[in-house]
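Fold this sequence, please.
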Amino acid sequence: MSTPAFFAPCPRGLEPALARELAACGATDPVAVGGGVQFAGDLPICYRANLESRIASRVLLRVAHAAYASEHDVYDAAHAIRWADWFDVDRSIRVDVGATRSPLRSLDFVTLRIKDAVCDRFRADVGRRPDVDTRSPDVRIRGYLDERSVTLYLDTSGEPLWKRGARADPGEAPLRENLAAGILALAGWAPEEPLFDPMCGSGTFLAEAAAIAHRIAPGARRAFGFERLRNFDAALWTRLRDAARERELPPRPLALYGADRDPAALARTARTLEHLGLAAAARLERADVLEVAAPAAAGVLVANPPYGVRIGDDAALAAFYPRLGDALKARFAGWRCYILTADLRLAKLIGLKATRRTPLYNGPLECRLFEYRIVAGSMRGPRPAHA
C-alpha cells in the first residue's frame, strides 16, 4: 500500500518555512509549491502536522487525482471513490472547490457535481446518502482543478488550523495566527530574545510568541476533522496529544512586550493571553508607537500597522509613515524591525532602507513584510520631497 499523500495550504510566501516545519514533524519529501506544501506520511504524521504546525492552514489528504475535460469527468472521478470506506453515511458533508486556469465555466456547478457524485456513490453502496451542512459539517471534501486535472482531498483538519481554540474574543483579528507565526519564523525570533509589538491590537503576535516559548502545540486544545474518519486511531491520537501537553513549560514571565494607544486593544490582548493561561508572559502598556521607548537594548520588533484597506485615511497614513521611520531610527537602534503592510507607499515614505522584502498574503490582501535592521547613524533612505 502506498504512503498517503497530503497537501498543506498556507499563506502565500510562507511555503519554505512550512516545508521546514513539516520536515521537523517527520513528513516525507516536503516540497514547497505555490500556496502550500506537498508531502507524504502515515497517520502519525497526519496527526502531528495538525497538532504541531503553526503555519499550515489545513492538512488535506489526497484521495483521487484524474484528468478531466468536462464537469462529467469531474463527477466520474468523485463517483469512483468508495466514500463509505472513509466516513459513515451519517456524517454531514461540505464540498469546496478551488481552481487555477481551469477551462470550466462555473466552479459552483463543479462543486454541485462533486457533491452529487459523493451522494450517488453512497446511495449505490449503502442505500442512503449523507446530509449536506455548509456551516458546520462533519466531513469537508475539497476539490482542486488545474488546466487538465482534478485532485480530490479529505480535509483532516476540519476548522482551519489558525483557529487555535485559544482566542478569547470570537471576532476575527486583522492578522491570522498562522501568518503571525510565519512572520516570527521569517524574523528568526527565538524565545530568549526580546519581542515587541508596539501596535499589538488583538495580541496575535504576542500570543503566538508566548505559545512558542512555552512549547504549547497549537492544536493541543481543539478538535480535528480526522477524528470523524473511519481510520481514526483514538489511542494513537491520545498518545500524541498527551505527549505534546507533557512538553509544555509552566507559565512564566518572558521578554515579550506589547503597546497600543487604544485601551480596548490592550484589553483584547490581555484577554487573549489570559485565555491561554499566559497572562504573566507579556508586559503591556498604553503608548503611541511614535513615542514609545524600546523595552530592551536589542530585540525583534513586529508590527501590522493600519493601512488604507483598514482605516481608509490616505492622507493620515502618508503623514504617519515618515514619523514611524523617525521613531524607529531614534529609539530602536540595535533592533530588527519587521513591518507587514498592504500599503506599498510605506517603502517609499518610511525613509529607511529595507534589508529584506518578503511578499506575503494576509487573506486575499497582497502584502509585503519589510525588514529593517536599525543601526545608529545609518540605514536612512532618501526622504521623498513631497513627504
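Residues 175 and 248 are 25 Å apart (CA to CA). The chain has a mean pLDDT of 93.
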